[in-house]
Amino acid sequence: MPILDRDAFEFFSRSAEQTQRLGTRLGSLLQPGDLVCLSGDLGSGKTTMVQGIARGWGSVDPVTSPTFVLVNVYRRMDGRQLNHLDAYRLQNASEGEDLDLDELLDGKSLLVEWPEHIQGALPPDCLLVKLTWMADEQRGMVITAKGERYNEMLNQFKQSVLGG
Fold first, then answer.
1. How far apart are CA 112 and CA 94, in angstroms?
2. Measured between alpha carbons, how far is 144 from 122 in angstroms, rounded to an integer?
3. Structural domain of 42
4. Does residue 88 lie in a domain region?
5. Is position 70 within any domain?
6. Positive or negative CA dihedral for 48, 50, 53, 57?
7. Is 54 within the bounds of a domain?
8. What does the pLDDT look like over 3-39, one tens digit per residue?
9. Cα atoms in the Cβ-side hemisphere of radius 13 Å centred on 18
């Protein structure tokens, strides 16, 4: 019996650069309205992964952690936007709802770090990236699809990483 179900993909990254490259592949698959949640302890590589996702999506803006401003907005040359929310300082779903998450997703993609802090305010369908610190240069990640769109996205991601 497999440890992970068919809606999950496990990977071990051996460097920050490799984590960013995986993020780049994931970012290239983003469509308007997509929600990617990144979960993991401090130092697990969430912002490093976001840097790669934004690069793969086509951001012309530098990526930084929005811990103190809550939401960073990244732009592409075609005018599209990618929102990056850090929910670390939020206490509950009510505070997440105050941010008008529907607006953050309306025609845009949304990346959420620390989604567990505002879980009740987030749509149930998403791509969940769980990162784990393993050693100085090593991170474990499990990417889980929740919903049909994200199953498709995860399958495309697997093909881009594994080939075939």
1. 16
2. 16
3. 16-116+148-158
4. yes
5. yes
6. negative
7. yes
8. 567 788 888 889 999 999 999 999 999 999 999 999 9
9. 11
Spatial separation of the C-alpha atoms in residues 34 and 82, rounded to whole Å: 10
Instruction: Give the burial string for 34-59 (b: 16+ CB within 10 Å, else e).
Output: bbbbbbbeeebbbbbbbbbbbbbbbb
- Mean pLDDT in residue range 122-141: 90
Residue 89: inside a domain: yes
Task: Say how many C-beta atoms besides its own lie within 10 A of residue 147's C-beta.
Answer: 15
**pTM, rounded to two decimals:** 0.90
Count, in order, helices (H) and strands (E) of the chain. 5, 7
Residue bearing the bigger pLDDT, 7 or 79:
79
**What's the CATH code of the domain at 24?**
3.40.50.300
Give yes or no for residue 139 having a pLDDT over 80: yes
Confidence of residue 156 (pLDDT cuts 50, 70, 90): very high
- 22 C-beta neighbours (distance < 10 Å), count: 25
